[in-house]
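Wait, can you check?
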Amino acid sequence: MEELPNQIAERYGRGPSQTARNRIGVIITATVLGLLFAIWMVWVTITGSNQLDPKTTAYELLGSGQVKVTFTVVKPANATVICALKALKQDYGIVGYKEVAMPGDASENGAALELSQKVTFSTTEQAVTGLVDKCWFN
């Protein structure tokens, strides 16, 4: 009677050797996925720490030829950062552009510093908004 389950297992591929192979395959797959996840986490941590997140806090339309944009950005105190500002018209076309440099202080350590800037720049047409587009390290 005990021989019947072994015959059925051999016939349908569920013998002890098959179970061991399945277990090894699951272990290898889980190890590879865990390693890929760890690599992804390191990559996200490294690339995320070097990104700047500027925020437009206000804008003011100064007639048909100028815009004043107020923005903040958190940056390391010793790093030089350049920010691109845009003025847009009704159909989202760019009518003004300016790059603003915020120099770092070499005497400071790498502590985070929140800077607020007010920048006035010219436009080619009447703008409806002004904003900080992006910032990058120089």
